[in-house]
Each structure stands twice: as C-alpha cells, then as structure tokens.
Recover the amino acids of this structure.
C-alpha cells in the first residue's frame, strides 16, 4: 500500500524518496540552548514551521509564517474514512485549492475554529506539546500584495488560528504591506520585488530576517558588518531515512558559537523549488540571516528536502501527509528529523 501511495505522490509531482548523493560532515555539537529555538519558513516551509512550532511548543519560543497558512489546513474532512491512497489524494487537492488558492471558502475551508480544535485534540492525546505553551510565543506573519501562489486570506486565517490557540494578539506581528511577490524579502531593492518565481527571494528594501528575529527574540544587537562565522554543509542522512530529506543540509555557525555555550537556534525552512539543489545558496545565503545571527549568537539551521527533476521537482516540505498521516505530530518523519538536528546542536561537544 505504501508503495502505491508513493507512486501516486510521484504522479502528482511531489516527494518520491531521499537523495542518495554523497553527503558532507556530521552536524556539529555546539551546546546550544534548545529552549531558545525559533522557526521560520516560506510557503511549504511556512506550513512546516508552524507544524514544528506547535508540535514542540515547549522548546520553541516563536515562529515566522511567510506566505503560508494555518496549522492542519490540508487535512481533508472525512478523508480518514477512505483508503490511504484516496486520503492522500484528498489532502493534496485540498492543500492547493483550499490552502493556497483559497477557492474552497464556500465549503468552509479553512475552518479556523475546527483547525484550532484539531490542535487541541492532538495535544490532549499527547501527540503534540501542550497548547498552553503557545501563550508565551511570538509569531510573525507576512503576505506580499502581489503574491501569485498563496492568497493573502490564507495567511490571515493562520493568524486567526494562533489567536484561537491562545497566542496574545499583541504577540502577533504582521509585516509591512509591500508589493512583494511570493518570496522571502530582503533589504535590497530592485525589479524582483513583485515576482512570484524562483528563487523566491525578492528585493523590496525590507529586512525581513532582522524584523522577524527581533519580534521573536526581542531587541537585537545591530547586525554584523561581516558574517565571520561558518556556513557548513552537513550530512542529513542520520536524521531520518523516511523523511524525504536531501543528503545534505546547511547550518550557519557564528564565530562566538564555536567558543561559547548557550547560543540560540533558528530553523529556516525553504519553500517548494527553493532548496539548494534547485536555487543554490539563494535562500541559505541570500535571505540575510547570517549578519543578524553573527551579532546575536544565533545558529541558523537550514534543513533541506530532497528534489530531482524526475521524482521530486518541487521539493516541498510535508504539510499534507506524503510521509504518513502523522505529519502534524511530533512523530512526523520530517518534524522528528529536524528535532533531532536541533538536539544535536544542543549536545555538548
């Protein structure tokens, strides 16, 4: 059955398996502070950031949702009464129509009250951390005015679910209204601002990396004039063969974090068609995290999903169930894999 499901997912243009390329050195143990972890993401990465945050809300302190929607949005109602293949197909269809294009409002999708209840149900069953933790979180939201891929209303719905789950309204920050396309925004300024095309990094004269980190962590030291730390490539294969990860991930380690314990951790999730194999270092190096990380002792982890032109052209994170229908919980292969990476960074050398 699982083989048939994976074949269906391949046919839909989604994940089919992890890369088998040779990978790099192990992820370093840096004695970081796991309890000061934050997450951000764009598009499918935004959905994954929210899923990771809510699944591990006891150790995560905040999230940034860029061009992404509410937790659990793609989980089709009554799909669990179908066979596994039909269940996956229904989720995949709803993810596009209801959770990106916002064309299912007549059918009550997304239903923010029901999605909040679903999170509470999973917490009550011990499958995610206690919802009560979210009352202490800080959440940043952003939707570009010219985004052609994820409707603005979907991002608004994500904010509403956070409110229903107890995040204080004052702890939710909405980014500025910009004529930005579907992309992570930088403080450069050029004609790319309104585009919704790869590499999905747009230059609109706004330092999104600095703004979201400051909202989550509070006042930051001014960003470094030069990021003098290390951008390392590491072997992701030990963190979960069933997670659909690329062989290699990336991590930015500030110089101070090689010397001193207790650095904070920020996990930055790329979007579809935005992993290193697709766009090189456009997301890893071009989004502007490193100068802020360098000045504020923040390790930035860039996990990567596998992609290749045949089996995984989009390279999306799993927010509709292609790795299994526990994808919203702590047991989800991708959430478990990234959590193991965070735990590794928090391990003493």
């Amino acid at each position: 059955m699982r083989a048939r499901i994976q074949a269906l997912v391949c046919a839909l243009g989604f994940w089919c398996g992890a890369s088998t390329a040779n990978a790099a050195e192990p992820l370093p143990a840096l004695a970081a502070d796991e309890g000061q972890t934050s997450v951000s993401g764009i598009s499918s990465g935004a959905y994954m950031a929210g899923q990771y945050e809510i699944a591990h809300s006891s150790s995560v302190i905040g999230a940034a949702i860029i061009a992404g929607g509410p937790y659990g949005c793609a989980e089709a109602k009554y799909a669990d009464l179908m066979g596994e293949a039909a269940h996956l197909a229904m989720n995949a269809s709803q993810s596009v129509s209801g959770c990106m294009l916002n064309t299912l409002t007549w059918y009550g999708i997304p239903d923010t009250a029901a999605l909040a209840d679903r999170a509470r149900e999973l917490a009550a069953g011990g499958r995610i951390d206690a919802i009560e933790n979210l009352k202490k979180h800080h959440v940043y939201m952003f939707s570009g005015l010219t985004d052609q891929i994820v409707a603005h209303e979907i991002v608004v719905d994500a904010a509403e679910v956070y409110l229903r789950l107890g995040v204080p309204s004052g702890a939710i920050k909405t980014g500025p209204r910009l004529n930005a396309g579907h992309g992570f925004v930088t403080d450069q300024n050029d004609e790319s601002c309104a585009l919704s095309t790869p590499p999905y990094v747009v230059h609109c004269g706004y330092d999104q990396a600095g703004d979201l980190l400051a909202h989550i962590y509070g006042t930051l030291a001014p960003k470094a004039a030069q990021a003098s730390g290390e951008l390392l490539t590491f072997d992701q294969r030990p963190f979960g063969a069933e997670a659909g990860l690329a062989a290699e991930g990336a991590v930015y380690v500030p110089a101070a974090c090689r010397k001193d314990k207790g650095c904070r951790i920020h996990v930055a999730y790329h979007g579809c068609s935005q992993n290193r194999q697709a766009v090189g270092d456009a997301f890893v190096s071009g989004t502007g995290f490193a100068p802020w990380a360098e000045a504020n002792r923040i390790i930035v982890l860039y996990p990567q999903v596998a992609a290749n032109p045949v089996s995984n052209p989009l390279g999306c994170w799993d927010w509709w169930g292609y790795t299994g229908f526990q994808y919203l919980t702590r047991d989800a292969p991708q959430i478990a894999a990234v959590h193991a990476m965070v735990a590794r960074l928090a391990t003493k050398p």
